[in-house]
Amino acid sequence: MTLQQFMNEAISPWMREDGPDSDIVLSSRIRLARNFAEASFPLIAKQEVLEEIKVFFQKEYEHQSFQDYQDFAFVPIRGLSPVEKRVLVEKHLISPHLAKHAESAATLISENEQVSVMINEEDHIRIQMYFPGFQLNKALKKAFEFDDWLEEKVNYAFDETRGYLTSCPTNVGTGMRASVMMHLPALAITGQLNRMIPAINQLGLVVRGIYGEGSEAVGNVFQISNQITLGKSEEDIVEDLQSVVKQLIEHERKARSRLVDQSGTQLEDRIYRSYGVLEYSRIIESMEAAKCLSNVRLGIDLGIIKNVSRHILNELMILTQPGFLQQYAKKTLTANERDVLRASLIRERLQLEK
Question: Which Pfam families match (predicted)?
Fold first, then answer.
């Protein structure tokens, strides 16, 4: 797999599959933070130490395969253009933090893009394992197996009392962040989500935007993840998160049902107006596009719109981001040029469905 192939496809191969409750849960992710026992952590490490770690990963894991995750590509962040880095962020293959600290950073990405390993981010190693829909337990099992595979050659920084040692104290313990990406339009439309977020936070979980910490929610897509990593096992953390996600799924389904029963005409008008904007606009900003895509996806999930695939909406949510638009155009674009191209791509993609 080459960098260009990662750049050209807006939607990762694993995202084309449906998973449990995939009308609401877009994806499940397990992220594991690990560090080399014999090296200073990235925040204070000398440059030559980080370079050695980067070279180690390239030598040991480039083009290697593990189970179903084939032909890992090694991608140094240094040397990537701003657009290329932004595309990798938009596809959730690297974090915004890694993109900004590129001197000795790199990533390993499996051919199907389901597994990525960020190297020399906040920690030496950040493993990311994705599954479509609501599959946290399966993601955890596979993440453990992949973690064991890496540990055959890496001596992790580990303390018998504290667990895995990490740069940030909030990751000490399991070093794990479990998260789900959820599309919650009905709870957002009815205002119920704003009342739920404080209660979710009190349970040791956090609600963030689509790109995690410091990002805003776009298109009614929210990331729900654990905050606590110390004092609980990985299984307990996943169980707690699953319990809350199941309740959110139930509340979202009920909110959708109430919207149909109590505001059916208004809801259809909202959905079809959004569809009309997407189908006929000649210029559209990213926030407006995300809002319209969210409404149309709700219409698909409710059976109101029948001629558009849910996967097309997933693809457009990424394809219409600034990095991908410029990658598609093969040049840097002004904000206005991006808005024009975004509208054109959406129109073309929707036409393919007819």
Answer: ATP-gua_Ptrans
What whole-number distance in Å separates Cα of residue 90 and Cα of residue 318? 7
pTM of the predicted model as reported, rounded to 2 decimal places: 0.91
CA distances 270 to 134, 138, 203, 284, Å, are: 28, 37, 34, 17
Residue 7 annotated in ligand binding:
no
> Which pLDDT score, from 0 to 100, does residue 214 have?
47
**Is residue 28 annotated as involved in ligand binding?**
yes
The candidate with the shortest Cα–Cα distance to 321, out of 277, 279, 276, 287, is 287
Instruction: List C-alpha distances in Å: 326 to 51, 100, 116, 339, 350.
Output: 30, 19, 23, 11, 20
At residue 354, the pLDDT reads 58
* 31 labelled binding-site residue: yes
Which of the residue ranges 127-131, 205-209, 295-299 would you say has the lowest mean pLDDT? 205-209
Q: Is 160 annotated as a binding residue?
A: no
* 178 annotated as belonging to a binding site for a ligand: yes
